[in-house]
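[09:14] KT: can someone run the structure on this one? pasting the chain below
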Amino acid sequence: MPDSTTPNSKSVHHIAYTTRDVEATYDFYSNKLGLPLIHAENTRAEGGYFRHFFFGIGSGEAIAFFEVNGVGEEVDFKTEISTGLGLPPWANHIAFRLDTLEELSDQVKHMHDNGLGDILEINHGWCTSIYTEDPNGITVEFCVTTDPDGFEQTEEEALRQLRLPASEIREHEPALRLV
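[09:31] RB: done, structure tokens below
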């Protein structure tokens, strides 16, 4: 458990994934989602090279990607972090925060206007989210907290939920629809 001497993170600087297709990844994040490309670099290493590029997600934070070529990767490496590991596609994902349902609606419109058709909306009770998949097989979510009190828990309550026996977990049917 953290104590007063534990350094606290201020926020996420960036989260990094891999890609096999720089152009498709650029098109998806820059054009289809509307995130600005804010930095790119190329590095020779270990007899190969890698590209590392970043899209701004607000507040000085970024989502980044590596294109790797001959730097220790397996030939058939997977970029699909969930299905590549035998998990459901939603198990590992990135969620971007929006502040209002109007912003969420504007994001859906932008995505539709730029060629994304398969967008799933789910009302989780405490938040409403939209989901799509990027060209690398990564699930991307935009999320609006609609009930902050429904999300906030004491650490004790969160630990109780975390340790709840499987036999006591209740069924939950979130409201979902394609938008």
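[09:33] KT: thanks! Residues 10-77 form a domain with the 2,3-Dihydroxybiphenyl 1,2-Dioxygenase; domain 1 fold (CATH 3.10.180.10).
[09:34] RB: yep, looked fine to me
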